[in-house]
Design brief:
Distance between the termini: 64 Å
CATH architecture of the largest domain: 6 Propeller
Largest sheet: 5 strands, antiparallel
Number of domains: 3
Oligomer: single chain
Number of strands: 32
Radius of gyration: 24 Å
CATH class of the largest domain: Mainly Beta
CATH superfamily of the largest domain: Kelch-type beta propeller
Helix content: 10-25%
Structural class: alpha+beta
Number of helices: 10
CATH topology of the largest domain: Neuraminidase
């Protein structure tokens, strides 16, 4: 069987021929897996003809399966959806989901409905729901059923959590809350109170499957690490506990991908860490994956096109971007940026761009400057102008559709990303707490949250 899978097979699609490793097809395509393992005559043929499928879509599929990240036109997106559905290629469907943007979301939504790719259909609908006002003039092309489905969904809300350490139960502590921005009323409202033993101070926090996960954090003068982790489900308005990482840590970055959380770096007993742990939500277990190239705390992290990236800083003027390769379980260097260093930084992603945000010139921590790295061209550009950090903290930036949400105690500022420019859109109420913040997007149940903060 192993020698058979190592063979190459010639696939004819329309007038084109493709020589493909059988292993690749069996690993990723339900159609070919069933075909090659069926024992039928076709399973041993050296050449197979696929009918009712486009060569364009098949070529795109092969690129994705080989680890490439093609930028697709409208026609290519349509053919890619057709191929993913016909050959039952989950990897291709996930790639299309990761590539949803304001230019292709309506097309992908219609195509997914036509060919029955349910995950892509739902993901595209959620994207359109979140960007409804910006896309409304283009939705006339949708059938009433497709439009009704979008409008039945709950849009995501901007959520913020302040730094909190456990206190006595009888003390009223406003920092022990999760809050969301009611944009219609322009006020922050309380969504839930943290568990009494939970800490968000130097904790790792992330969202996965519309739930907030809180891992680690410290309490007390000696920075004792919280060894339990917490999960908040807004649909049930309930908290559950789950195990902490095998290596206690704080001041680390937590990010989510597929069915897993990744605890990246951090610190323990005043020593920076380079270890990374993965929590599998389905099995409720932690396991170590490849270490970072260097120990680091509070590492900037962003996800673009379904890929995880981190920024590592090397004194005094060098920033290294690394990507975590899931299949190979390794961190690979992507690019280097040389800029005068200053403290405070984060990274956010939009489409195939990574935005590196740092303090302004001459260590001016009241201003932010930004550099953009494009993953397709592998080129750096500097965004013109400076962003005043005292009005909206870009170090907690969250992107919904083409809109950036930034917040501090004074104001919540919204920017529109257009042609790689961040243009001011509007302002909303600032978060009424002092101290550091972590921000997220959550889809909240349709209930009356009447507690204003």
């Amino acid at each position: 069987m192993q020698s058979q899978l190592a063979e190459r097979v010639r696939i004819q699609v329309e007038e084109d021929f493709f020589s493909v490793d059988k292993t690749l097809l069996v690993e990723h395509c339900e159609y070919f897996r069933a075909l090659f393992q069926s024992g039928m005559r076709e399973s041993t043929q050296k050449e197979i003809q696929l009918r009712d499928l486009s060569a364009m879509g098949f070529a795109i599929m092969l690129k994705v399966l080989k680890g490439e990240y093609p930028t697709l036109s409208c026609e290519e997106n349509l053919k890619a959806v057709e191929c993913a559905a016909f050959l039952q290629v989950e990897t291709m469907a996930k790639y299309l989901i990761a590539s949803i943007n304001s230019d292709n979301c309506i097309l992908l939504y219609q195509a997914a409905a036509m060919f029955g790719l349910l995950d892509l259909f739902h993901s595209a609908a959620l994207y359109i729901r979140d960007s409804y006002l910006d896309l409304e003039e283009y939705l006339d092309c949708l059938s009433p059923d497709l439009l009704d489905y979008i409008e039945s969904l709950i849009p995501s809300s901007f959520v913020a959590v302040g730094a909190h350490t456990p206190t006595f139960e009888f003390l009223e502590d406003l920092s022990r809350t999760i809050c969301y921005l009611d944009e219609e009323c322009n006020t922050w409202r309380t969504l839930s109170c943290l568990p009494l033993t939970a800490s968000t101070f130097l904790a790792g926090m992330a969202t996965l499957d519309n739930k907030i996960y809180i891992v680690g954090g410290v309490y007390g003068y000696n920075k004792e690490v919280v060894d339990r982790s917490f999960c908040y489900d807004p649909a049930a308005n309930s908290w559950t506990e789950f195990p902490g990482p095998q290596h206690l840590r704080y001041d680390f970055t937590l990010t989510a991908q597929d069915d897993s959380l990744y605890a990246i770096g951090g610190e323990f007993e005043k020593a920076p860490l380079k270890s990374v742990e993965k929590f599998n939500v389905s099995t409720n277990t932690w396991s170590f994956v490849s270490d970072l190239p260097q120990p680091t705390t509070a590492v900037p992290c962003a996800q673009a096109m379904g890929r995880i990236f981190v920024c590592l800083w090397k004194p005094l003027d060098t920033t290294m971007i690394y990507e975590y390769k899931f299949q190979k379980d390794e961190w690979l260097p992507i690019s280097t940026l040389n800029r005068p260093q200053s403290y405070g930084h984060c990274m956010v992603a939009h489409r195939d761009n990574l935005y590196i945000i740092r303090n302004g010139p001459f260590d001016d921590f009241l201003r932010c400057v930004m550099d953009c790295f494009n993953l397709t061209t592998m080129q750096w550009t500097s965004l013109p102008g400076q962003f005043v950090n005292s009005k909206g903290s870009l170090f907690t930036a969250i992107i919904k559709g083409d809109t950036v949400y930034t917040v501090n105690k004074v104001l919540t500022l919204l920017y529109t990303i257009k042609e790689n420019m961040w243009k001011f859109k509007k302002e909303r109420a600032g978060f009424p707490r002092s101290g550091s913040l972590q921000t997220f997007l959550l889809r909240l149940p349709r209930t009356d949250h009447s507690i204003a903060t």
